Amino acid sequence: IGCKSSSIQRLGLSSQCEGFSHSQITRLFSRFTSLDKSENGALSREDFQRIPELAINPLGDRIINAFSLKGKKIEDQVNFRGFMRTLAHFRPIEDNEKSKDPREPEPLNSRNNKLLFAFRLYDLDKDDKISREELLQVLEKVDVEQKMSIRFLH
Ligand SMILES: [Ca+2]
Fold first, then answer.
1. 88-110: per-residue pLDDT in tens?
2. How far is ligand 1, taken at its centre, from the CA of residue 122, in Å?
């Protein structure tokens, strides 16, 4: 759907759009470009840290890592393709998930892939296990955030 446009083909996305529509991709691309302060076609850690939603999110750092993760390695720069692939996990699950052709690769917004994505946010050392310490670290961060929001209420 909507992946045939020439501007999108120029981005090298003609074969796969990760389920995004043409207008969504156009919007994502303009967001990507506005974040790319060094204008080198890739986002650095600092570029991501300027996103207000991530700056206030207790798991912001880990979400940034999720964008930068290639296999088990954290890359310094994220290109548009990688940006889009990470965001694809946040798309709503499609109703017809079960009726899809099992030979097709599972979409990134499937239940499994969403779970895997969340799991990776907790698995800091990428050993495919969440240790007690890793879980506690997340809980502590969330707790701080909750305390802060309570303080703001009073
Ligand atoms: Ca681990």
1. 998 888 776 666 677 878 889 99
2. 7
Best CA proximity match to 29, nearest among 12, 15, 45, 46: 12
Each residue of 137-151: pLDDT tens digit?
888 877 766 666 666
- CA–centroid distance, residue 60 to ligand 1 (Å): 18
**Number of domains making up the chain:** 1
Q: Which residues surround ligand 1, an ion (CB under 5 A)?
A: 123, 125, 127, 129
3-state helix, strand, coil in the chain (%, to 5): 55, 5, 40
Hey, what are 60's tokens?
């912001």
pTM over 0.85: no
In a domain, 63, yes or no: yes
Q: Which domain holds residue 65?
A: 17-94+102-142
